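All the exercises in this workshop are built on plain-text protein records. An example says more than a description, so a record of this kind follows:
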Amino acid sequence: MRQWHSEFQARCWYDDAVTVVELHGEIDIVAAEALAPRLRRLTAGSGHEVIVDLRPVTFIDCSGLGMLCVLHERLIARGRRLRVVATRPLTLKMLRLTGLHRAFVVHGSLREARSATGLPLAPKTPAGRGAAGAGRTTVDAAIASLIPYQRTRPRPGTQPAPSAGDG
């Protein structure tokens, strides 16, 4: 039996009034389903602008774009803003084809997105932390560290092997 899988990673940090969600790999239906509850928790609070960094994303489908739309709507309802960082031609093409480049504020770099918030570019370094850890405080342990995720499912159109209890 052939199987397909989705591989993605997510990392999140915040400082002052900005939450950054950095996504890596393939953002498809499997990734969107896994990330949705975590992103809901990020929007439950108040005050933070959210920057989603899609630069390391190698593939994004309508499920991933839908996840961004839901995040955008939840933030707008709370008086907050979503900023998207995207540079890969395929990702930018998907945003343009769907018209989402007009709905989201799209930036070419994290620095550009951060400066557009009106906050200082260099966050304060917490005591006892070097420049490498400056401003990167974990938000949610499940998403804050780099999380490799792989899930396998039967390929569409194939039937799973019957189990011993079937028939």
Observations:
- The longest strand covers residues 3-15.
- The longest helix spans residues 29-44.
- The mean pLDDT is 75.
